[in-house]
Amino acid sequence: MRATSKGVRSGDVHARLPASVVLQRIRDDAPANFFTLGWLVAGLHKRAFGVIILLFAVVAVTPGIANVVGLLLLVPAFQMATGQRAPAFPRRVATHPFATRRLATLMQRALPLLRAIEKMIHPRLATPAEPTKRLVGAIVLLSSATMVFSPIPFSNVVPALVIALIALAYLEEDGALLAIGLLAAVVMDALALTAAWETLRGAEWLSRVW
């Protein structure tokens, strides 16, 4: 990997490039040893929300760190929902160094699958930009909260995959796939809330019995 103090090549993110190409170039341009979220966001411009959410969702599939990544996901999701122009992390988070080798490992595993999925995705069913952005942010926010606070083991996998699907559809401007992803997220979140409510009712009933 080539060491650089600059962000991802800005010209790449303004063109209509597949998400896999953008991620590949993030990998190629990453500093040799460590990178930061500040460096990552700086070069992504208009595609920053989609790319950041996609990356976080892919990482969140991994057991053990899903809660931490889910909390990070809440930040860009909330900012999307409230109409901010680009992700902005707290300074301590934005400047925290992450090992570039871990990014390389993640890309090596994710890119082949992503390229295969992209063969079935293309721009269709155009949607209004700002309302779509806010809706995606709101749904990802709720799904991230579901992933973070669910007490069920391995419950991070399905929400993370659904969020990744939404982010990919949003990046590729595939309105049909985005609608499917958003609907899946709503159903998933409704089921999670119902399960949480039933768990609370069961705990209350047990407390009365004992």
Structural description of this entry:
By secondary structure, the protein is mainly alpha-helical. The chain has one domain (10-209). It has helices at residues 10-14, 19-29, 37-42, 48-60, 66-81, 91-94, 100-118, 129-149, 157-172, 175-209; strands at 34-35, 98-99. A two-stranded antiparallel sheet has the order 1-2. Helix 4 (48-60) runs antiparallel to helix 9. The longest helix is centred in the last third of the chain and has 35 residues, at 175-209. Residues 1-5 and 10-14 have low confidence and may be disordered.
Topology (SSEs and partners):
Blueprint: H1 10-14, H2 19-29, E1 34-35, H3 37-42, H4 48-60, H5 66-81, H6 91-94, E2 98-99, H7 100-118, H8 129-149, H9 157-172, H10 175-209
Antiparallel strand pairs: 1-2
Helix pairs in contact: 2-7, 4-5, 4-9, 5-8, 8-9, 8-10, 9-10
Structural class: mainly alpha
Number of helices: 10
How do the SSEs run, as a string of H and E?
A: HHEHHHHEHHHH
Q: If you average the pLDDT, what whole number results?
A: 85
Number of domains: 1
The major β-sheet equals: 2 strands, antiparallel
Shape: globular
**Computed Rg:** 18 Å
Tell me what portion of residues adopts beta-strand conformation: under 5%
**What order do the strands of the largest sheet run in, or round the barrel if closed?**
1-2
Low-confidence stretches: 1-5, 10-14
Comma- or semicolon-separated keywords:
mainly alpha, 2 strands, two-stranded antiparallel sheet, 10 helices, 210 residues
